[in-house]
Specification:
Two copies of one chain form a homodimer. In chain A, 9% of the residues lie in helices and 56% in strands. With 181 residues, chain A is mainly beta. Chain A has one domain: Lipocalin (Beta Barrel), CATH 2.40.128. Chain A has a ten-stranded antiparallel β-barrel. In chain A, a hairpin with a 4-residue loop joins β3 and β4. The longest helix of chain A has 9 residues. Chain A starts with a helix and ends in a 13-residue tail after the last strand. Chains A and B meet through β1, β8, β9 and β10 of A and β1, β8, β9 and β10 of B.
């Protein structure tokens, strides 16, 4: 699976069950969410705008993805939102490249992150701002079960880990047909 | 990091925080544990016994590891136990090989599992019995923070996922010195 196939498989509606482990307070927190992932073409206005903001020239193999969420915490608090990320593969190796966030994590200074698609078909996303470092690893246990684990460091210290099991609601997207077909 | 270095880094005492997501019942369960991991040499009686049981000849680059746990569930139930696993690298590629369990998961028929060390330094362990398929992925966020995620299928259906954050209690083991030194 290459990065393009991975992102295509991400598209769709998911039911997410998330647990975070907070080291400082030795406790965990749970949440549930509906997440809709849409792939955006490189010429999409939001993708273009983000690339301009980071002063990075997207290449034809860049991808955008929009994440829409509808969260419910254990205390029944609601949180609805969306964000866009852009992946700009390195010209010489599309298995890795830049990761551009629409909004910086934690509100700090925006720094382009990076992604890497491992040989074991796990996608690692690394994001940094002034004070926050976040590393997220995603993979598919099956086309309909996505796993996501993140670690966060604040000012160099690990503060939380989080685990999300995501189950597809509805059918997976059709496999991309060969353009030569 | 190769498989040997990975296992050496696993050795030690860990505080584990575990959460499982149960799909059938749409709920999660939490537990905490102290885990002690000891590496066992290939000539250790327990390693020899397991290899004999599976009728697999260990090679000089095989490894054994003993896991001792002391669990506390959220309901304060205690569970103390230990098990041994043996990794027998493939002769032509030590990044993958056989995974032998002392006891079969779920009490079913014992089938040799397999392991694979990914280019992203994550170790994947796959274990099967008659009815249960389990896939676990482990990696180090740092030498003192290990992450572990598993998925379990029973009779072909995903039933649970589990996430464990493990923090080292005490100092990491000293790096192995070269035998030639």
């Amino acid at each position: 699976m290459n990065i393009e196939e991975f992102l295509q498989l991400c598209a769709g509606k998911w039911f997410a069950h998330r647990t975070s482990h907070d080291f400082a307070n030795n406790k965990s927190e749970e949440g549930k969410s509906e997440i809709i992932v849409e792939n955006l073409p490189v010429e999409h206005p939001e993708v273009v705008k983000i690339c301009q903001h980071y002063q990075i020239q997207p290449n034809p193999i860049s991808f955008g993805a929009k994440f829409n969420w509808n969260d419910t915490t254990k205390l029944n608090q609601k949180n609805v939102g969306s964000t866009v990320v852009v992946l700009v593969p390195d010209a010489d190796n599309p298995h890795q490249g830049k990761l551009l966030h629409q909004f910086p994590p934690g509100g700090g200074k925006q720094i382009a992150g990076r992604y890497e698609m491992g040989s074991d078909e796990a996608l690692t996303l690394i994001t940094e701002s002034d004070t926050i470092y976040s590393e997220e690893r995603l993979w598919f246990a099956s086309p309909n079960l996505r796993m996501r684990v993140s670690v966060t460091k604040v000012n160099g210290d690990f503060t939380t880990t989080a685990f999300t099991s995501e189950i597809r609601m509805g059918v997976p997207p059709a496999a991309k047909t060969s353009q030569a077909a």
